[in-house]
Design goal:
The complex is a heterodimer.
Chain A (H helix, E strand, L loop, with lengths): L10 E6 L12 H16 L6 E4 L2 E5 L1 H7 L2 H13 L6 E6 L1 H14 L5 E3 L5 H6 L9 H9 L5 H5 L3 H19 L18 E9 L2 H21 L2 E12 L4 E7 L6 H13 L15 E13 L15 H14 L5 E5 L9 E5 L25 E12 L20 E4 L5 E14 L8 E10 L4 E7 L2 E8 L1
Parallel strand pairs in A: 2-8, 4-5
Antiparallel strand pairs in A: 1-3, 1-4, 2-3, 6-9, 7-8, 7-9, 10-11, 12-13, 12-17, 13-14, 14-15, 15-16, 16-17
Chain B lengths: L6 E3 L12 E3 L3 E4 L4 H12 L4 E4 L6 H7 L6 E4 L6 H11 L2 E4 L7 H14 L2 E5 L7 E13 L4 E14 L7 E6 L8 E2 L26
Parallel strand pairs in B: 3-7, 3-8, 4-5, 4-6, 6-7
Antiparallel strand pairs in B: 1-2, 8-9, 9-10, 10-11
Helix pairs in contact in B: 1-2, 3-4
Classes of the chains: A alpha+beta, B alpha/beta.
């Protein structure tokens, strides 16, 4: 039985700050988190119960505040003005239900840049959604499949019977069908759970640095999920409550459709902590450290069978996992990597690195042939960033390569960065490589060489845009 | 995890260089500069089931390491261990039997002593790409002769390297071996004296205009 499963979704207002979210966020990481923390502060002035859906996007139930501030449009204008005072642009969307409101906020700007608010009137959400292309769905694989089946808009999808969609596309299909009809992704669990499912960790003495707290958050998140899973539940939002040593508390709601992995929760704790500027140079917090971290599950729903795959595979022994996680606690999640061999034409692409604890998948699959990759022994030294170099002929002129791969002269000397020049004793090349020529942005043309120098080394050099770069060394 | 014998296995080609035919647990091996030799030293233990941590070497060429026998499934990388690198290495030593480290700075004596104590307690092996005065074994590549590369033609096929090892105690005797590092198949092999390529004779350089080989 699903009580109030298909009841009318709530009016939701979404505030989106394009400069702070998405892959092209202009201030990076901690700086964006800090600004966003202030944006949430400003929005909280209008409605106390604000939840953050991701970095740069927050939402709240609009009914009450709109009535108080004289309508949804008036409220939106006030919020945009308040956020603009922090020199952050924002867009606002209002609609029935979270999904439609998020889309409306994303669409708000193209409609009117001067007044970036898009209000979908009550009851109009289904019509608004029907016109949206399926590519707005988060599940891009499913969106691609729908497109190939001729279902180009959410309206096309919504017109199909729910049972047919569910039987053809399973859980994922059922979920997007609900979204397309303007319903919330998952109905709320009818009753709040009888037990307190929140988890907490006290730090005694207070922890002055962020990293160990983020690390503890990962373990806490696992406990939280385990506790929920034992009751067949999962949660749509997680409340992260940080209590500082001086008694101050910072609390945020983080929403995630689907399920936040332990690493995902840890990221959000990091963003929240980054909102507090630490005092340089020792990176310690002015509030005297963090006394307590509590994770509270919010909007508990029935679990539909998502599994938490914390490890890509089961072969990591406890001993190694403990060691790796201790280093992650010191340096951050991304600091401990596991290599995965894959395919690719360039030496730097053939091994990808995956943070410890995440699923190991190569960037480029090893399966397909990669014509143009250099055959033979692989270089023992592969520079993460190619090093600037100069290759000159006997007369000291720079050796150049034409578009048709003709060399201007025989390479005779190699100078890498500030190092003393080396005499070239043997060389081979140029081997041309033109990748992704169909894509103006990603296209790369390069000529590759192997250069042996008088110190017994062999270098892998490339010429790109008339510049010599050293990519790797064989020794 | 390799069962608790006193040495971690090394690749067969490298056994002749090492005092007990392997990497003695609790010992430090030092190679002055990072290169394929470091990866090959780790490869034997890794292939036998040991976990290998690589700290402070962002440019480790893992494709080449796989060629020598390293198992990337059991490899942890900490490309930038930062200023707290001694703690990072100590933590890695708790989980990995072999840690390859390039210290970011000259290692102070106290730090060296502390890490050596951790190493003895954990029963691992520390492979240092750099200077480590107390190392039990010092290995270095003296000569490298590459085959396959010509004057504008060919490609790198293999390298014949002369490697020496000396050190303290049982390693005091200097050992020298010629190795294919790497061999044509990417692995490591002992070089037969007749195969060792003769050093380059500085040939008269051809003028660019006289080249018969097409540049494409």
């Amino acid at each position: 039985m699903r009580p109030n499963a298909d009841s009318e979704p709530q009016r939701i207002m979404v505030v989106r700050c394009p400069p702070l979210c998405g892959p092209d966020a202009s201030p990076a990481g901690p700086q964006a988190a800090r600004l966003f923390e202030r944006v949430i502060g400003a929005v909280t002035g209008f409605c106390p119960n604000v939840e953050a859906t991701e970095l740069g996007v927050c939402a709240f139930g609009a009914r009450g505040p709109a009535r108080y501030f004289g309508g949804e449009g008036a409220l939106a204008s006030k919020i945009i003005a308040a956020v603009a005072e922090l020199s952050v642009e924002s867009r606002i969307g209002v609609a029935d239900g979270m999904f439609a409101a998020l889309l409306a906020a994303r669409r708000a700007e193209p409609i009117d840049p001067a007044e970036p608010v898009l209000v979908i009137p009550p009851g109009g959400t289904a019509g608004f959604l029907a016109a949206q292309p399926v590519s707005v769905l988060a599940d891009q694989d499913l969106a691609g499949l729908l497109k190939r089946l001729g279902l180009l808009t959410l309206g096309d999808l919504a017109a199909l019977p729910a049972s047919d969609v569910a039987s053809r596309f399973g859980d994922a299909g059922e979920a997007v069908h609900r979204l397309a009809r303007g319903l919330d992704l998952r109905p709320l669990a009818a009753r709040p759970p009888a037990h307190d499912l929140s988890v907490a960790r006290e730090f005694d003495p207070p922890e002055p640095l962020a990293e160990p707290v983020v690390f503890a958050a990962k373990t806490l998140a696992e406990q939280l999920h385990a506790g929920l899973a034992a009751r067949g539940l999962t949660c749509v939002r997680v409340q992260v409550r940080v209590t500082w040593a001086d008694g101050e508390e910072s609390s945020r709601l983080w929403r995630h459709d689907g399920l936040l992995t332990a690493a995902g929760v840890a990221d959000r704790v990091r963003w929240q902590l980054d909102g507090r500027p630490a005092t340089p140079p020792d990176g310690q917090y002015a509030q005297g450290g963090i006394g307590m971290l509590r994770l509270v599950p919010d909007q508990v729903v029935r679990a539909t069978g998502h599994q938490l795959a914390l490890w890509g595979e089961a072969m990591v022994s406890d001993r190694v996992a403990r060691a790796a996680m201790r280093v992650q606690a010191m340096l951050g999640h991304e600091a401990v990597l596991r290599p995965v061999t894959g395919g690719g034409r360039n030496v730097s692409e053939q091994v990808s690195h995956v943070p410890f604890g995440e699923k190991r998948e190569p960037l480029l699959a090893a399966g397909p042939p990669w014509p143009g990759r250099i055959a033979g022994a692989a270089p023992g030294v592969v520079y993460p960033a190619a090093r600037e170099a100069e290759v000159t002929d006997d007369a000291g002129r720079l050796v150049t390569v034409t578009g048709r791969c003709v060399l201007s002269a025989v390479p005779a000397r190699l100078v890498i960065g500030p190092e003393p020049p080396r005499r070239i004793t043997a060389w081979a090349g140029p081997w041309p490589l033109s990748e992704r020529w169909w894509d103006a942005v990603a296209a790369r043309r390069r000529a590759r060489f192997q250069l042996a120098t008088d110190d017994g080394r062999v270098w892998l050099a490339v010429v790109r845009d008339s510049r010599w770069l050293i990519e790797a060394g064989y020794w | 995890m390799v069962p608790g014998t006193g040495v971690l296995p090394a690749l067969p080609a490298l056994r002749g260089l090492l005092p007990r035919g392997g990497l003695a647990r609790g010992s430090v091996l030092a190679v002055p500069e990072f290169g394929l030799l470091c990866l090959a030293l780790a490869a034997g233990a890794s292939a036998a089931g040991a976990w290998c941590g690589i700290a402070g070497v962002p440019e480790a060429g893992l494709a080449a390491a796989v060629g020598t026998g390293l198992d990337v499934e059991r490899t942890l990388l900490v490309p930038d261990p930062g200023p707290a690198w001694p703690q990072v290495v100590a933590s890695l030593l708790d989980g990995c039997e072999l840690v390859l480290l390039r210290p970011p700075v000259t290692v102070p004596v106290q730090v060296r002593r502390r890490l050596e104590a951790v190493l003895r307690r954990a029963g691992g092996v520390l492979l240092v790409a750099g200077d480590w005065p107390g190392a039990q074994v010092h290995l270095r590549v003296i000569t490298q002769r590459w085959t396959g590369l010509g004057d504008g033609h060919g490609r790198v096929r293999a390298c014949c390297a002369e490697v020496t090892a000396d050190g303290r105690g049982e390693a005091a005797l200097t050992r020298t071996r010629w190795l294919w590092l790497p061999a044509e198949d990417g692995g490591v092999a002992v070089a037969d004296p007749v195969d060792i390529p003769v050093p380059d004779i500085p040939a008269t350089r051809m003028q660019p205009g006289l080249r018969a080989v097409s540049a494409g």
